Amino acid sequence: MALLEVEGLKAYYGQTQALHGVSFALEPGGITTLLGANGAGKTTTLRSLCGMVRTEGSVRFDGRPISGRATEAIVRLGVGHVPEGRGTFTNLTVDENLRVAAYTRRDKAAAQRDLDMVFEYFPILKARISQQAGTLSGGEQQMLAISRALMLGPRLMLLDEPSFGLAPLIVQEIFRIMRRINAEAKVSMLLVEQNAALALELADHAYVLETGRVVMSGKASVVKSDEAIRKSYLGY
Amino acid sequence: MEQLIQQIASGIANGAIYACLALALVMIFVSTDHINFAQGEMAMFSAFLCWQLLDWGLNFWIALPIVVVVSFLIGLSIERVILRPLHGAPVLSVVVVFIGLLAIFHSLAGAIWTHTIKAFPSPFPQVAFAGSGYIGPHQLGMIAVTVGLLGALFAFFRFTPLGLAMRAAAQNPASARLAGVSVDWMLALGWGLAAAIGAVAGTMVAPAVYLEPNMMASILLYGFAGALVGGISSPGGAVAGGFIVGVLENLVAYFGNLLEKITGFYLIGNGEKLTVALIIVITVLTLKPSGLFGHVTVKRV
Ligand SMILES: Nc1ncnc2c1ncn2[C@@H]1O[C@H](COP(=O)(O)OP(=O)(O)OP(=O)(O)O)[C@@H](O)[C@H]1O
Ligand SMILES: [Mg+2]
Predict the structure, then answer these.
(1) Candidates B177, B179, B298; nearest CB to A134
(2) Cβ pairs bridging A and B (under 8 Å)
(3) Where are the domains of chain B?
(4) What ipTM score was computed for the predicted complex, to two decimals?
């Protein structure tokens, strides 16, 4: 059974419609990437999955319908959302940023294990633990955003352009760790990226969005090597 | 000299009350950007509730927790029932609701308990103690209770997971939701806490100012002044601002009287305290718009 099943998803900002019936499915354990140009609706898709915008259509997580539920309720089912712009609590410390995400978890021992795991993946965060999060570098804030999502103990992670505005070396480092998280912590991922080449390296499946519609989908390896697809949909 | 110390001590006592109201205002402000004009009337109403329980023969220290809990629930319900449907409404509609609340609590108190002034007995023993030449037992008790309350609140926000969730919700609601925090409930909880703090302030100040429906009007103004001086976006700053305003108003009167005694020339005295307090607020805000302790958020872009 698919971990996430999206069917006929429409999304609205006030009167404007941003998604026009998006459908896709995610297999458990994999990394899927959602590609598309500026304004294609990638961020809107992730927001829709978490109930952050008004939607129509069906979203099922682990077989359970989640559309129409409150964001915090969806999140607690095990959907970690690493938002566009990183969503750092700038006035809280790194430690507090991480602990707030574990606030609703019943199993405190598991939360502590996840904290240890986070520090193993991102040792720099441990070094910065009592620093105000707003003073972290962009790359550190991105690591913190991923770590916050991990502290929820998620089964699915939604990542919105984690490479945005970061130096190539840092991006490589973060993507390497994302791969480890996927393999070791068994967290499935839906990765939104503008940098298609980078995302296709990591993902095993790809969807391409254009003005709120899925216009292409396929195995990442196929998309990557098919010049015609790349030229017409991804522009490189 | 003795008189000066007396004035400072009683300024601290008043300041403690202003600090409580300032904190109550800030708690709602940080998460909604609204100033609850009804905060003072809510505190007044709580003081009347307490008076009623005392009148029925309850001991003050039993009545106080009951009143605090009831006030908490009233504040929480106001948010859930009245303000919830107004999320995203224009500021003016919210202001109208606050003014409506103010009028409701005011007339409700008048209707239930009449507008005649009532004495509110001090819950503290009227005994002599070291330093009683400088400060009365009620003032000292008032400082102890309010400072204790502020300390407990500080510990709550700083050290408990729920306090952390409330701070996160106030600072970045979208991210807080993504961390699984029920932001709507945190808002309601903030309202409940603000009402509870107001209840303590109201019952503590009632013996000093006597009980009547207008009792909190000027006190709320001082509390507001304190919040602005300290920084309306900073709870710690608002508390400090409350104490500053309390001490300052007494010093103004003290030095005004001193000036008159020495030179025979009357410049300022007790009557001008509020005016001077407001002038101070305006001066501070002109020089430092975020307040003395209001932090400019550190942010990297
Ligand atoms: N808050 C909003 N209010 C109104 N319209 C919005 C809002 N956010 C996005 N939109 C519109 O919805 C459409 C999809 O936007 P979205 O942010 O999902 O694109 P995106 O694929 O994430 O783009 P980018 O790569 O630039 O982040 C765009 O036409 C955009 O203008
Ligand atoms: Mg986007």
Answers:
(1) B298
(2) 87
(3) 2-213
(4) 0.95
